[in-house]
Amino acid sequence: MEVEVTLKVKPKYEKMYKSGYPLITKDAISNVNTLQKEGQLFKLIAEDNSFLGKGYLGKQNKGYGWVLTNNRNEIINQAFFEKKIKDAAENRKVLFNSEDTTAFRLFNAEGDGIGGFTIDYYDGFYLVNWYSEGIYKYKEYVYTALTKLGQYQGIYQKKRFNSGGKFIEEDGFVEGERAEFPLIVKENGVNFAIYLNEGAMVGVFLDQREVRKKIRDTYAKGKTVLNTFSYTGAFSVFAALGRATKTTSVDLANRSLSKTIEQFQLNGIDHEKQDIIVEDVFRYFKYASRKQLKFDLVILDPPSFARSKKFTFSASKDYKNLLKEAIDITEENGVIVASTNCATFDMKKFKGFIKAAFKELHLNYSIEEEYSLPEDFKTMKQFKEGNYLKVVFIRKA
Ligand code: SAH
Question: Which residues, if any, are the signal sequence (predicted)?
């Protein structure tokens, strides 16, 4: 394929793209109205017409496309995709060979050299998430590359972009064999039930692997654990396996009850000895406070945005208040695991929320652990916002 459009970078942004910034934004490009055809390749040039990079156009919430190379001689073709995917697989060799962990991220978009799509591996099955119509035009490159990687059982995909006004819903099967769901995968020896044929969320968020392990290995033993926004209860399962006295999982979604029971059962834990509550977390906090319930370990992992009947939550605006409610029901000397996947603020700002929450309650704290994305969620130093995950273990003094 030949380079088709030329994009001109505004002088102010030249240095940024020269040093490898990958995202095409509206602010940075002066002839932004030529950004039209999804998937079209572009050449990026400076004000003086000098070459800066090449990439493709694809509109997603983050921007208008991705720079793929700063080398003028590189051609964006099958071989280009193949090399990036092969390198990524090489990079995850330890995970591929692990018997304890059979689910991980194989290809993390721009972090592995091509923005706009990710590939996760679930014990023999690949799941490709496509974030723009533009990158979806290159799907055959990706599927061919996966086939050449060697043995796999099947490929599934999810289109996470808006095509023709609505999200296309389908079971997502692409090729190979269909999986039988639930597909049982392992993470550090723990079983998870995965459904690649359901919505965007397949049963577990792979980016929290290290945090779950830390909770199980170091923080859970003999503790009462409250897991808020618990989804399928992955943190609760790890806490229970780490010999927590009891776990309490709270999530608004009806599905969370059966899904959490399923995860406990898969790991030989009696779910009747655990609490699984389908309720708005903000209502639960009020209830717990009224009843003077206290927990040794409180896990907070809300979505960046959430709207329920009575409350709206936006991590960038409301995290401090969420923390204050959590602090209120945490035992003295207890620990809060505060997590966010909100990309609009960084770790420094997140710690600012923590500081402000404790200050307003006239309480002290210390920070015991900090996590960002694990290694398989590879990120670029030139694209800090790609490392969206921030997790802090806070001890209430
Ligand atoms: N912590 C989970 C992932 C959370 S996903 C894990 O590690 O697996 C976000 C979850 O928050 C969803 O399951 C959603 O149903 C739930 N949720 C959103 N708003 C909520 C609210 N107000 N109260 C309780 N749960 C909520």
Answer: none
